[in-house]
Predict the 3D structure of the following.
Amino acid sequence: MTDDDRLWVKSYDQWVDPDLTIPDISYVGLLEQSFNDFPDRTAFHFMGISQTFGDFDRQSRRFANFLARIGCAPGDVVGINLPNTPQYMIAHAGTLRAGCAATGVSPLLSPNEMAYQIADSGARVLVTLDAIFEKKFLKIKDQVPNLTHLVTTNIADFLPRWKRSVAKVLKKIPTGNVVPVTGKTIIPFMDLLRDYPAQRPETSVTPEDTCLIQYTGGTTGFPKGAELIHRNLVANLHQVNNWFGTDPGRDVLCSGFPFFHLAGLALCMWAMAHGNAQILIPDPRNARHICGEIARHRPTRLCNVPSLYQMLLDEPRFKSLPASSVEAIRTCISAAAPLPAEFYRALETAVGEGKVLEAYGMTETGPLLTMNPQDGQKKIGSVGLPLPSTCIKIVDLDTGTREMPLGQEGEIIGNGPQVMKGYYNKPEETAHALREFQGNRWMFTGDIGRMDEDGYVYIIDRAKDMLNVGGFKVFSTEAEETLYGHPAVEYCAFVGLSNPQRPGSELVKAVIQPTSQYKEWDKKKLEDDIISYCRENMAPYKVPRIIEFVDQMPLTAVGKVDKKSLR
């Protein structure tokens, strides 16, 4: 493909290599290099403690040795059911160094949802919190016969004894009782790190081996495990490194994305493989704690979902951060949901002009496909340009076989070395998502978007979130962006309800969480005001017929508005 076909290349920062060569190495190979090159550099900061890559190296080798001693072989799956803690990093790195594949199991899942993922992935080992063990795992212990070992831990296990004692007395940290379970071997995480030697198993890991089985959100039907090989992860990490143009060991990362979500895990893996320190955030909704960590450790890159940036903007400490901490921030990456223009401008005012980068991707693409340039032009409302060695096209919504002209909406499809192998043990779903287009294999994302004349991509909506009103298409994201211009709207979501009088058509409903200054307003008066605003700023068919006010908008585990629950 020539640069004429890749019109976005002309908008790249000058150092970005559009034909980036991906090294023929596994992620474990990158990790070993990082451990060798940066033994004295800080690997992570966590609730007042810090640890070097040298210590992290030894602990993850102990975990890898444990897996080998219990008979885990290359290809076996380890589930990690933890928040962002040192234990997650150690278990993850140790799992991959043992040649096994990791699957992140969200601590927010219900017991039955946990059982489904453990069984579907075939996980042999689960690393979990003692509180989750007591409250959830004991309810499903007989539903996961494939699981032979559990490693249990507490969020505070890495803290000094006095901090653990204070936290437990004040009930700041959840705890649970761990009891024997027939047919399962249970070992405390800290005992494992004490009793097993720091000797990595002699296991060969290739770029084609499975690295992650990462489950999608499951907004429709059961979640699917995206099978990502080592080559996918290595490709995406090199693409991002080239995009930023930085040398290893120079960055400090701070993100509220949980590690069980690929956005958070990919950042963690980038940091681990490039000698970069990271600030671990166990509770992403604790904006005050995050501000304290930013002030203390001066991260160079923040990465969050828009709702978390909004929480930070609402936190007084964020606007009074020391000048040195603000100056240290090079980029604020926003991903996983649209960043409304008003939030974008407010965030840029807080951290500095040109530092806010919107990005786009999905679990199935390792995860990133596009990002706004670090130094070049950033277009508000755009998710940026295709990354190096990545191609994006917009195809028609009806057949997916015809490329759309620039500026016209269609389904976004992506091609690149970061695109997954397929959905784990689901050939039909894989065949639907990964299809041939113009002689190559493309990921059909299900997202609706357009591309402008400079190659910048704009997300219009998710296909499943698009509303049909009497034959007119209502893109919920576009309508929400307009509604965010009303001063009473803190969060909003447009959803469709079946129109009983017109089969096949929908009624537009807007769910709104009012800002604090409007919470006490008369709801009828506020509703009339919002409807009037919509009529002035939207086509008639987009104006909501129903408005519902909520005290708290339901959010997913990563902070997106949970439209599934709203529907």
The domain at 466-566 is CATH 3.30.300.30 (GMP Synthetase; Chain A, domain 3). The longest strand covers residues 440-451. The chain has a mean pLDDT of 93.
